[in-house]
């Protein structure tokens, strides 16, 4: 083994050990808050039926799929969705956590249908059943421009949740563009 490989291996091991120690020390001090716990109600194995309106005046597109959602470390809700839309398989990933310092929910969304990494901030309603997230990204009406989005994830019952996405128009009004009904798998 060359000296370069030995040094590189040593540096890699040292980095992994350092990151593990830092993460472990932070984890020992950190405890999930009640806001983190509220995310747990959205966890599970779900079937999904989605309806999307690509642009005003166009017919809605329907898709069926599944979602598998879990908590990581008690801090992060992470879900993976699988569906087929217009004959094309689509995979999506959603992560949501709570930032106690900023007193808001934070998250990301990505999917195999485009290259945008959506970044969310938001709040849970007083009942703890409806999470409202806001983001900015390419407009579905004109991808060359940016638009504001408001998305909600609402638990209707322990076995039924609904995701809804709205886009803000130039007039300031919010228009629903996506709705997904989830039913818990038995």
Description:
By secondary structure, the chain is α+β, with helices and mostly antiparallel strands. It has two domains: 1-30; 34-184, Calycin beta-barrel core domain (Lipocalin, Beta Barrel). 18% of the residues lie in helices and 53% in strands. It has two helices and ten strands; from the N terminus they run H-H-E-E-E-E-E-E-E-E-E-E. It has helices at 3-29, 34-39, and strands at residues 44-52, 61-72, 76-85, 88-99, 104-111, 118-124, 130-138, 146-157, 160-168, 174-184. The chain has a ten-stranded antiparallel barrel. The longest helix is centred in the N-terminal third of the chain and has 27 residues, at 3-29. The radius of gyration is 20 Å and the shape is globular. The model is unreliable at 1-22 (pLDDT under 50).
Short overview:
This protein has two helices and ten strands. It is of the alpha+beta class and 186 residues long. Mean pLDDT is 87; it is low at 1-22.
Shape-level CATH architecture of the largest domain: Beta Barrel
Q: Any idea what the shape is?
A: globular
Strand order, biggest sheet? 1-2-3-4-5-6-7-8-9-10
Q: What's the level 1 CATH class of the largest domain?
A: Mainly Beta
Share of helix among residues? 10-25%
The biggest beta sheet reads: 10 strands, antiparallel, barrel
Calculate Rg over CA atoms: 20 Å
| Count of runs of 4 or more consecutive helical residues | 2
Task: Name the helix and strand elements from N-terminus to C-terminus, one letter apiece.
Answer: HHEEEEEEEEEE
Low-confidence stretches: 1-22
Q: Structural class, from secondary structure content?
A: alpha+beta
Distance between the termini: 55 Å
């Amino acid at each position: 083994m060359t000296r370069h490989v030995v040094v590189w291996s040593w540096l890699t091991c040292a980095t992994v050990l350092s990151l593990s120690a830092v993460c472990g020390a932070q984890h020992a001090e950190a405890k999930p808050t009640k806001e983190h716990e509220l995310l747990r109600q959205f966890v599970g194995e779900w079937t999904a039926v989605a309806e999307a309106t690509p642009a005003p005046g166009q017919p809605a597109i329907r898709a069926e799929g599944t979602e598998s959602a879990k908590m990581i470390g008690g801090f992060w809700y992470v879900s993976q969705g699988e569906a087929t839309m217009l004959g094309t398989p689509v995979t999506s990933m959603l992560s949501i956590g709570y930032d106690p310092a900023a007193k808001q929910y934070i998250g990301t969304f990505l999917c195999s249908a485009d290259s945008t990494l959506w970044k969310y901030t938001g709040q849970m309603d007083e009942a703890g059943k409806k999470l409202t997230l806001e983001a900015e990204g390419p407009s579905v009406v004109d991808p060359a421009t940016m638009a504001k989005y408001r998305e909600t994830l609402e638990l209707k019952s322990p076995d039924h949740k609904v995701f809804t996405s709205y886009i803000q128009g130039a007039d300031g009004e919010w228009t629903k563009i996506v709705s997904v009904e989830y039913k818990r798998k038995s």
